[in-house]
Amino acid sequence: MAKARALDRRRKSVRNIRKITRTMELIATARFKKAMDRSIAARDYTKQLAKILENIAGAGADVVHPLLDVRPTERAAVLVLTGNRGLCGGYNSNVVRQSVALLGQWKSEHVDADLAVSGKRGISALKFRGYDMAERYTNFEDKPEFDAVAPIGRAYLEAYAAKKIDRLDVVYTKFHSIARQEAVTETLLPLKPPEATGGPDATGKAGPAASLASNEYDFYPSAESILEEILPASFLSRLFKCFLDAAVSEQVARMVAMKAATENAGGLIKSLSRQYNRARQSQITGEIMEILGGVEALKK
To answer: What is the pTM of this model?
Structure first.
């Protein structure tokens, strides 16, 4: 009887856990849809800024800006984006592994690295590994706000312009699709100069991008003054996109992990039910045999 009761208690416990994982799966699904809509909107905005920069370059403007200045890396900044919570599969561990590899690379090349980490999981993991962190952020959840990201980005812009850092790498999980998320290292500073895709062709005529720029844009007071505004805005939008991608990927990872946990709990419940039924059947059979034995004894 004791074994059957233990199996029944364990089965009830697993059922309760399944209810929790199922609820967490539904919550992650709802949050994922909202976060993905925000990420897609930011992606369109970032692409449009890149298009404007290409058009400026296609118009023949000399693109010169301190944020485009490429110099030898003596001091690098590393920003790591993780989550505040777990139960999301390998989401946090993959980012931590990627960041440890990057920090090891900078150390082997004798480059000083200023480390900043967003997310309690990343902070605790890198602290356990003995890394010193210049900044720690724990206020970003599944809905990062641009107003919260912008001060971080402006601080990096000022540091780069003042030559306090020579490079900025962001380690985060890039969202490709529901089936694919990848821990990557993306270099945001120095900015990549815009490419003129519409230069003169073999006949010496302006290409399509140059024509587009000259037809659709009038630069006032100059293309250079416009770059002063667009380049920092482009950087901030790309940084914000990294935070949004990280939030979307975290919810996808949690959704998948909780779905797998729910399915595993269902399989375990079935297995425990079979074991319980067998134990109960064996117990009932034993009790019947005892009764029959007692009847036979009374007949004698």
So the answer is: 0.81
